[in-house]
Amino acid sequence: MKSVHYLAIEGVIGVGKTTLSRLLSERLGARLVLEIVEENPFLPDFYRDMRRYAFQTQVFFLLSRYQQQMDLKQPDLFAPRW
């Protein structure tokens, strides 16, 4: 059975998480999975009123990440299996 490894990078906005992730992905030959920020409908409201929209914004990110993980579980039907 093939072992699977994950590397998660976390931090506050604007510190270079995406840049670091891209560099590591290239260097390690790993698949890069980024958080889907553009699709979060609560983000504009969050930046206007953080206290009011923080929960909704984070729940969207959580569910979005869950869906990404479920999609990653689905094997690539065209990938070589040797």
Describe this structure in words.
It is a single chain. The chain has 82 residues and is an all-alpha fold. Helix content is 51%, strand content 0%. It is globular and about 50 Å long. The protein starts with 16 loop residues before the first helix and ends in a 9-residue tail after the last helix. 0% of the residues are buried. The mean pLDDT is 87.
What labels describe this entry?
mainly alpha; 3 helices
Q: Provide mean pLDDT, rounded.
A: 87
Strand content: under 5%
**Helicity level, as a percent range?**
40-55%
Radius of gyration: 16 Å
In one word, what is the shape?
globular
Low-pLDDT stretches: none
In whole angstroms, the N-to-C terminal distance is 11 Å
State the helix count: 3
One letter per element, helices H and strands E, the order comes to HHH
Task: Outline the fold blueprint.
Blueprint: H1 17-28, H2 43-48, H3 50-73
Short description:
By secondary structure, the protein is mainly α.
